[in-house]
């Protein structure tokens, strides 16, 4: 299984990155940090068609499974990842052929937050988007990080996340 991780966080060396690093070490997945890419808000006029979104999708289309990694910011995915998701609309308009290359792939989610439980409203956009894009949603893994010992447990959480990859 050829796995890519798309990470969207405001802290490049933060909690989510730490969990993703453990996951990458465990699974051998390729990491794409949205902070390394210049991807702007969805534009109905597609004036941003030359930014890094389409090249990133071309790279991702080579993988069988995509893991989306995000902290919980105000019960939602990070703004970085939301901008990426909005841009999926480019694949339904100006890049339909490229969009079809995502069909049949599977996706999962890795998230970190402070609260003990991951709210349903966080995970729903991933599940519904997968359905809309004809991709399989295979599950999510959440690490609640409240103290140092929670960070020490990230290796075990990353191992759980690999079971969602197929
Ligand atoms: C702007 C902001 C909003 C947050 N909102 C939530 C939230 O709604 N629920 C939650 O459990 N944690 C929330 N947190 C805590 C983060 O999700 C948590 O610390 C996470 O592990 C940070 O990951 P990062 O280091 O990749 O940013 C928030 C943190 C920030 C900075």
CATH T-level fold name? Rossmann fold
CATH class: Alpha Beta
N- to C-terminal distance = 7 Å
Number of helices: 7
The shape, in one word, is: globular
Uncertain residue ranges:
none
Can you list the ligands bound to this structure?
Answer: flavin mononucleotide
- What composes the largest sheet? 5 strands, parallel
Count of all domains: 1
Q: Report the structural category.
A: alpha/beta
The sequence of SSEs as H and E is EHEHEHHEHEHH
Helix content: 25-40%
Strand numbers in spatial order across the main sheet: 2-1-3-4-5
Mean pLDDT: 97
Total strands: the figure is 5
CATH architecture: 3-Layer(aba) Sandwich
Report the sheet-strand fraction: 15-25%
Name the CATH superfamily classification.
Flavodoxin domain
Organism: Vibrio sinaloensis DSM 21326
Keywords: Flavoprotein, FMN
Protein name: NADPH-dependent FMN reductase
GO molecular function: oxidoreductase activity
How would you characterize this protein structure?
By secondary structure, this protein is α/β, with parallel strands linked by helices. It has one domain: Flavodoxin domain (Rossmann fold), CATH 3.40.50.360. α1 packs across α7. A 5-stranded parallel β-sheet has the order 2-1-3-4-5, with helices on both faces. Helix content is 37%, strand content 20%. The N and C termini lie close together (7 Å). The mean pLDDT is 97. It binds flavin mononucleotide. The site of flavin mononucleotide has 17 residues, from α1 and β4.
